[in-house]
Every structure is written in structure tokens, then in C-alpha cells.
Amino acid sequence: MPVANPPPRLHLIGQAVCRHGDNHTLVLEPKDVLLLAYLVLEDPISRKVLAALLWPDVDHSAAPLGAELLGAAREHGLAGIVLETIRHALEQHGQLRVGRLNAPAQVLDLLEQRLAAVPADGLALVRIALVAGSDFSPELAQAVSGRDVLELADAWSALERQGILDPRGFAHDLMLEAALRLLPEMIKRVIHGRVAEYLLPRAAAPARLAHHWLQAGDPLAALAPLTAAARLAWRAGRGLETRDAFFKAADIEIGRGEPDCAFALLFECAEAMARLCPVGDFDAVVSRLGPLVRTASQRARLTVLQAGSLYLHGGHVASTQMMADA
Predict the structure, then answer these.
(1) Per the confidence metrics, is the pTM higher than 0.85?
(2) Rounded distance between C-alpha atoms, residue 307 and residue 54, angstroms
(3) Which long-range contacts (CB under 8 A, 24 or more apart) does 42-51 make?
(4) What is the DSSP-derived secondary structure letter of residue 167?
(5) CA-CA distance, 102 to 268, in Å (whole number)?
(6) Can you tell me whether residue 170 is helix, strand or coil?
(7) What mean pLDDT comes out for the span 85-89?
(8) Contact, 35 vs 54, CB < 8 A?
(9) 131 forms bridges with which residues in the sheet?
(10) Is pLDDT at 72 greater than 50 in this prediction?
(11) Which of 51, 156, 226, 289 could form a cystine bridge with 210, CB 3.0-4.6 A?
(12) Among the listed ranges 50-64, 112-126, 196-210, 299-313, which one has the minimum average pLDDT value?
């Protein structure tokens, strides 16, 4: 039977490594070295061999414990911490042995120091990867940096050798957090804008495109993809995502002095909420529509929604009467 959470010993190691203050010593048992290796090795065959040694009673062919353990370890933030602790030990002593392992006091500080020492080309790639997220690719890096991808090859290889990036992006979440510390807000906005410009003609998911435009400080550019994202989420049955996208789009319309456009978006949102979400979410949209009413047509449409709210709350007679009076 595969385990759903990291074993207690891994929790103990992770808690010890996470302590703040002065550097401390972690006492390793023989099996711990196998466990640490299992967490940081990328090769699935090597992990399968180690899993057989660590958990001999588990049928790994029927239920691959490895994927669950690795996923749980990443969720708890332990895999990255353990990886950096091992790397720190190797850099300090050149070996990892059973016995005593000196863990860095604050792993994020250690990672920040490593990133700060990266050459300019490499740091530019790190920053682009941080902002681009799942959209990161050699082609995107070339477009955003303004450098030919072949010119970036050496810096990219160096980052992979140093364990900062891997083919999927950042090697682990802790590295991403450390990179975020070194990214000035104004630079982040510029990169978000360039990422959005790269994605715009490439049929990127509207929600991702809207995110980049918003982070770039360009809400008007985010308006169309936000509206598209809201409608896609509605069709997919994702209620909260639908509401949030419609609300953001409506706020942008209000901010640019277009209350009628905002009303239309929120009316559409109300239709979606009536089908996807609890009545409280529907009521929240209806309450936002009231201050935007400017025409008789809008007043009539709002009345329909208010009658619908009464009906959903059990006021069937009152709802019918409201519609008759409208």
C-alpha cells in the first residue's frame, strides 16, 4: 500500500533543516542517506531501485509509491530543503556520509546568495523564468531578452549545472522563492509586459495572458483576455474562476468610465452564477449591478435578476408579483 505522506523520519529531517538561527548539526542514520538520495535523484530507474531498498514490503509495480512520496515531499517543501542541504554539505566538505550533516541555518538566504553570484546573462534568464512560469521556453527567453537563443545557451547550461533551472523551469519551489527576492518590482512589470506581447499572437490561454497584462500594469490590455477567460471558465463549470474574471473585467470598465460595459459584464456574470454557484454568489453580483443602472432597459434586466433572487430564496409568490409589477 503506497504511503500518502512523507514518512515521519522525513518530517523530522525537514523540521531540523528548517530551523532558524545558527547552523546546526543533523545526525543521519544509514537509511537517511538512501531517503535523501531518493528525493533528489531525477532518474526514475535509480529511484525505483532505492524505493525497493527503502520499502521492501511495497508492491511498486502495482502501486508506484515514488510518485506519491515525491509529490507529498514537494507539497511539504521538504524536497527542495533537503536538496539544498545536501548541496551545501558537498560544497563545504566534498562528501556526504552517514553521521553528521551540517545544515544551513536559513536555506532561502543561502539560495539568494547563490543567485546573486550568477552572471548577468544567467540572472536575466532566471528572472524571465520566474515571471513566465509555465510559459517559459527557449523561444520566449529569446524574445523577452532580445538575445539569440544560441547566445543564451552557455548561461542556460550553467544554470542547469548549478541546480537552479532544469528542463521544467526552476529546480524546486524554494529556488523560485529566492529568485523572487532578487526581482525589483519595476523590472518584473517590464518582463510581464514582454511575456504578454510574446504570448498574444500564439493562442495562449486567456487567463494567463490576462495575468501577465495585469502584472505589467496594463489593465486595458487585460480586458479582452479576462472576458474570454471568464466565458471559458463558465463553459468549463468553474464558478469561482468565472466570477473573479468577470469582476476584474467589470472593475476595469468602471475604472475607465464605461459603466454600461461593466453592467453588461456583470449581467452575464449573474447568469453564470445562477447556474454554477450558491445563491449567495448570485446575490453578490446582483448587488453590484444596482449602482450601475442608468437606463430603463438596465432597470428591467435588474428587476428580472432580483425576482430570480427572491425565487431562489424560496419567495415564489413575491418573485411572481415583482415580475408582474415590472
Answers:
(1) no
(2) 63
(3) 42/166
(4) T
(5) 59
(6) strand
(7) 61
(8) yes
(9) none
(10) no
(11) 226
(12) 50-64
